[in-house]
Amino acid sequence: MERLVIRGGRRLSGxxxxxxxxNAVLPVIAATLLGQxxxxxxxxxxxxxxxxxxxxxxxxxxxxxxxxxxxxKLFVDATTIENITAPYDIVRRMRxxxxxxxxxxxRLGRAKISLPGGCAIGTRPIDLHLKGLEALxxxxxxxxxxxxxxxxxxxxGAQIYLDFPSVGAxxxxxxxxxxxxxxxxxxxxxxxxxxxxxANYLNIMGANIRGAGTNVIKVEGANKLxxxxxTIIPDRIEAGTYMIAAAMTRGDVYIANAISEHLKPVxxxxxxxxxxxxxxxxxxxxxxxxxxxxxxxKTLPYPGFPTDMQAQFMAMLTIAEGTSMVTETVFxxxxxxxxxxxxxxxxxxxxxxTSVVEGQDKLTGCQVKATDLRAGAxxxxxxxxxxxxxxxxxxxxxxxxxxxxxxxxxxxGADIKRVDx
Length: 421
Ligand code: UD1
Prior knowledge:
The protein is of the alpha/beta class. Helices cover about 30% and strands about 25% of the residues. The chain has 14 helices and 26 strands. The protein has helices spanning about 20-30, 50-60, 90, 100-110, 125-135, 165-175, 195-205, 235-250, 265-270, 310-315, 340-345, 375-385, 395-400, 405-410; strands at about 1-5, 15, 35, 40-45, 65-70, 75, 85, 110-115, 140-145, 145-150, 160, 185, 210, 215-220, 225, 230, 250-255, 275-280, 285, 295-300, 325, 345-350, 355-360, 365-370, 390-395, 415-420. The strands form 7 sheets. The protein has a 4-stranded mixed sheet. Strands 2-17-19-18 form a 4-stranded mixed sheet. A hairpin with a 2-residue loop joins strand 18 and strand 19. Helix 1 (about 20-30) runs parallel beside helix 7 (about 195-205), helix 4 runs parallel beside helix 6 (about 165-175) and helix 10 packs parallel to helix 12 (about 375-385). It is globular and about 65 Å long. About 55% of the residues are buried. Uridine-diphosphate-N-acetylglucosamine binds near residues 23, 128 and 331.
């Protein structure tokens, strides 16, 4: 099993280029299932395990997928789809696999998908996805670990109110509604930049979606969508992770390609902590000025502070001056990084959905494990400033969502390597 070996204490400096967004590329790859007539070429596709997983799912459906990793391009030929079943063996690895439900229903009128797995961060039901698809006319039955959905009378536009602005549910509904008959209105949808990216891509394919990124989305169904090329937006969570690396190591890093508009709450909180953040049209420069100050954060759906940055921000707060409160409202059980950070000397108390972090002068390196994707990123950040050597195990979690992490950190001056144990 591979692990990361990190020696802390290096100040990071230089430029790092952000890759395409994991959470944008996964729904866009699912949406390629809607594209007829041509081969799709997606650009800025990151080299991630999650991309390999969704590609494997498409291949089980009989779709041709080729990832040109050297050029960040992914080619998908979905002109014919031979199969409608996504099996447990693949789906259990990644919850986002469920995103193929909407497109398969729209294109073929049937989808059979194993109940999803993914990170162990809370119960993560899929009731909102199913409620939305049922409102559009899908008939759903659940048995033997599979969700079997059909559209006996086709998909018809509907008025859908989401009880919670779920990202995945909004995406599944958007993709299904793009080919439903008539108008769909989604109230209280997710407003994340990845929703806007998916809507832009669907519109290029011939869909008619207005309002993505606001609290009401309107979709006029189209009869047919045509495969088109598309470039994925930069990953705001990867960018945020490098911003914190710069702040924690008292470094000076230019995060090229980052879109500051997508990172407003992270930038605001870093500034509040005393970190210098300078934004321009091509990226963001972050300069760490000594020890950061304690700040409180609370995760919320976009445009609030992203839950996917909570663990990394907490890593920074473990070495801040003073005591911070970190409140997680989006997921239950998303403090998986806490035990590992404690092993490194962090002082953190958990009280329900809030953690109280008492900043320490220093952390110390030891053996730790990545317990999920973002918790893994938090451990790596802590290791960059910890005294001595840290060994991080279970790094397959990190490989799900960080393109070239080791090489990017090495290019900034970090002492990090990947070793086979
Ligand atoms: C997506 C992101 C993930 C991010 C999350 C929140 C992708 C591939 N993943 O996940 O990185 O952390 O958004 O920003 O884009 N919920 C329900 N019923 C549902 C669906 C969700 O109760 O049918 C709940 C979940 O349990 C959770 C909350 O809603 O508590 C947010 O989930 P959701 O926005 O759906 O996240 P994902 O789309 O799974």
